[in-house]
């Protein structure tokens, strides 16, 4: 399997990109409109935040799910036995965020949301008509004015050697949402699973933009766009002494969006958060 690297400005970009999503659940864009300088600034500022102490004043709320999730309460992937080796912060436009970090995060949120709407229209245009006819509304419309789209800043700390056997920076999982937009992290490690169960490195040169299908779009497209399992493996050697920072934007539909005969976006999310152990 090959995750394609597609030039966003190419004439056949939409076709190439959506083919990669259909075949692998992942697609990678270069020459995309997300400013790299903004991404790098966010990585640097948030690394300093995670290295400091005031993060503890932002402990996440079980009710609203915004704020800081420490390594001690970090999520356990569905079906996994160990916690992931990571800490993270959940940013929503209505949620808590350190004031000095707000403007850049919100600018990123806006720009990436705009691109996501365009990519969802590519996805819709390249869905076979017999499947597209059951989309309950245009896909790009599903995320419009959603209050659930989540910007997560992740920090995977340097490894200490004391990690529980078998634990990973991020254990194999599928994303819950419609579509995820992820700028390449500052360190490697992201892998996707192919149909035979092999783990394949996702192209991740600094500056690339990685997009993957989440479970909700798999549900809405009746599996045409698969939500593939992915993970972040632990580095060895020099890499083990470094933090890894990444910035996924999880595009979530409005609560009332009908995904399929079985689920609305709301019922789907509630079920998954309970399974993850971060909500009761
Ligand atoms: O850190 C990464 O590169 C991927 C993170 C991820 O897959 C997730 O948080 O769902
Ligand atoms: Fe993920």
UniProtKB/TrEMBL annotation:
Cofactor(s) needed by this chain: Fe(2+)
Protein keywords: Ethylene biosynthesis, Iron, Metal-binding, Oxidoreductase
Domain Fe2OG dioxygenase: 146-253
PROSITE patterns for this protein: FE2OG_OXY
Enzyme class, first EC level, given as a word: oxidoreductase
GO molecular function: 2-oxoglutarate oxygenase/decarboxylase (ethylene-forming) activity; metal ion binding
Coiled coil: none
Catalytic activity: 2-oxoglutarate + O2 + 2 H(+) = ethene + 3 CO2 + H2O; L-arginine + 2-oxoglutarate + O2 = guanidine + L-glutamate 5-semialdehyde + succinate + CO2
Keyword Protein biosynthesis in record: no
EC numbers on record: 1.13.12.19, 1.14.20.7
Record carries keyword Metal-binding: yes
Entry superkingdom: Bacteria
Pathway in which the depicted protein is active: Alkene biosynthesis; ethylene biosynthesis via 2-oxoglutarate
GO biological process: ethylene biosynthetic process
Family stated for the protein in its record: Belongs to the iron/ascorbate-dependent oxidoreductase family.
PANTHER family attached to this UniProt entry: 2-OXOGLUTARATE (2OG) AND FE(II)-DEPENDENT OXYGENASE SUPERFAMILY PROTEIN-RELATED
Protein name: 2-oxoglutarate-dependent ethylene/succinate-forming enzyme
Organism name: Paucibacter sediminis
